[in-house]
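Cross-check.
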Amino acid sequence: MKNNQHILLIDLPRICLVLFVLLQIISMMTYSGGTLFDPDSSGYSFSKNFLSDLGRYQSWSLENNFIACQLFNMSILIAGGVFTVFYTCVHTIFVLYKYYRIALLGSLFGVLGSISLAAVGLTPADLYSQLHDFSAKWLFRSFFIASICYSLVIFKTSIFKNKYATGYIVFAISILVYILISELGPNPFKSDLALTIQVISQKIILIILFASVYLQTKGLEKISL
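Predicted model, tokenized:
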């Protein structure tokens, strides 16, 4: 029988990733339509709609978006909950090492990022725009700090191979680039091109996040939890 650490740090995150992708796909298929600059367009546009558009109570077409909204927000809440559990547990692996405090700090910001992720699902952009934007900003800022902390810990300890620390560093750099694009890049409300740049960059960082989470579970699997 697998122990609790294996379930919480390996099995559960992997199940979460699969479930998240499935719910996102179904949500995209049921989105009631419209983009920021083209409210009459049909369906979901991969390059013109943010992921959070799926969670809108009312789509850009001003139609009821109930099904897509429920599925999207459910996936975000599940991911936020699973990542909270993950970061609550993962620092204990380093408890016997002198860099444990850095791992603990990483987990603190990992939990904050996870809570911010869940908050994104609780604050549809068309109903609570300020809270939604605040949650989205601190989601990435918190995960950036968490990834830096765990990169240092993995490099300084002998538990994991350094390639897993490299994965964390790539994730951290990617988040930083995304933060700079979202904060200093073109305003998506100003032009169609700016919207596309911001939407695509969001999709790319999401893919990198998924790859990072899976890589973490692979590293944890190697130490036979």
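Residues 151 and 206 are 19 Å apart (CA to CA). The chain is about 70% helix and 0% strand. Passed to J.P. for a second look.
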